[in-house]
Amino acid sequence: MATGELVAMEALARWSHPDLGVIDPTEFVAVAERTGVVGDLGEWALYTACAQATSWRTFCDVGVRVNVSALQLRDAAFVNKVVAVLVSTGLDPAALGLEITETVWVSDTARVAGTLTALHDMGIGISLDDLGSGYSSIAYLTRYPVFECFKIDKSYIQSLPAARPSAIVAAVVMLARAFDLTVVGEGVETVEQLEILRACGCDLAQGFLLGKPMTADQATAELSRAAKR
């Protein structure tokens, strides 16, 4: 927010089916979880994102953020799988961030906590997504000091500049300072929303105002232009 620098890209899974058209990830990821293939899908997404980031980092210092399924984090072999991906792609662990939502913690909390701790110890960034969408996020920040960042739920950002959402965003930023965490405002679509986040001291922002979803080739061109400025 302070410099206007592009620091990371978030990997988004998209499926364009030849007969059914574009299928929303909330639909196909849920199906993948029910049918037991979400682990394979998640591994593919992680490998693809890390390989792409390695290519980008030959000409710019950009990181990549990848969403992780609850079932992946409950997999006892997940840490080893992440290590294998990093070794195979050559990506610096510090360039990788994994984003989780609080639904991950509904069950198997000890196993998930152990997995996140191991990933944190490797230097991988752990982000808590959609802070404010549930009720237990703050408790997680206190009990599990593995997070480096959290993202304000976009429902609050989209309601800006109304007084109450503005106050909530300011309070969340203050909360981030208390935990010494980076805070991201997601879902930014207007200049006014961006300015309120900046005024509140938010560290980072993402959303359609700053960059709409794009293909890897389009992202490469965008990063190349940014690197030449």
TrEMBL record:
Gene3D superfamilies assigned: EAL domain
Q: Name one Pfam family in it.
A: EAL
List the InterPro entries hit by this protein, alphabetically.
Cyclic-di-GMP_PDE-like (IPR050706), EAL_dom (IPR001633), EAL_sf (IPR035919)
Which SUPFAM superfamilies does this entry report, sorted A to Z? EAL domain-like (SSF141868)
CDD domains membership: EAL
According to UniProt, the name of this protein is: EAL domain-containing protein
**Domain EAL, first and last residues per copy:** 1-227
PROSITE patterns from the xrefs?
EAL (PS50883)
